[in-house]
Amino acid sequence: MNYSVRKKNKIVKYIVIHYTGMKTLKLAYRKLSDIGSNVSAHYLISRKGIILNLLCPKYKAWHAGKSKWRNEININDYSIGIELENKGHNFGYTNYSNKQYESLKKLIFFLKRNFSISDRNIIFHSDIAPNRKKDPGEKFFIKKIGISRFDYKKKGKNNYTINKMLNLYGFHKSYIKQYKKFCIMSVKRSLNYSKINPSQSKKFYYDFYNLLFN
Predict the structure, then answer these.
(1) Residue ranges matching CATH 3.40.80.10 in the chain
(2) What does each of the 214 residues of the chain score in pLDDT, given as a tens digit?
(3) Which of 14, 27, 170, 207 is the most buried (most CB within 10 A)?
(4) pTM, whole model, 2 decimals?
């Protein structure tokens, strides 16, 4: 199992949701447990809803890779990684099972309570590495686990630019500058669009705005 010791000034504040992106649960488990794979996660949830605790959250797992979120880099330092069994976009991406949602909801409730993690800090792999990752993807419905990630209040007229909303969403400023189209596609996955592309239609603008503001 790959892991590192968390530095004392690196406090757990995020939960990062992934999919395994492998053909079988057995292959995913092997990879996440193999010291030669250079990856690991704290939890793995099977399609049957079985929760496997692979690593104690007090240790740093290697699940996020090169990543940025808001003003922070190396999100492994601050996060707990949860992998959901799913073949992913390369091997036959499917809907997540109801049992997975049920188990994920229970696990996140437990982690939120024990680590004082807010809903806004439950994030996706595609958020922290939009140029590299697609998971958990457009078929993951976060409302099924009772999480509301955004609670911004409307202020005056609706005069927000796409860039401003990408910033409010949480993307690191360097990603918005270098990988704007990938950030837009990541947002579309969060909105559960069936067609994922970098276009900025009026519909996308209003869907994005309504995602952020209540």
Answers:
(1) 4-145
(2) 899 999 888 899 999 999 999 999 999 999 999 999 999 999 999 999 999 999 999 999 999 999 999 999 999 999 999 999 999 999 999 999 999 999 999 999 999 999 999 999 999 999 999 999 999 999 999 999 999 999 888 766 678 999 999 999 999 999 999 999 999 999 999 999 999 999 999 999 999 999 999 7
(3) 14
(4) 0.96
| Joined tokens for residue 53 | 């605790």
Burial 22-32 (b: 16+ CB within 10 A, else e): beebeebbebb
Look at the domain 4-145 and name its fold: Lysozyme-like (3.40.80)
In the annotation, is 102 catalytic? no
Nearest to 85 by CA among 131, 149, 21, 8: 21
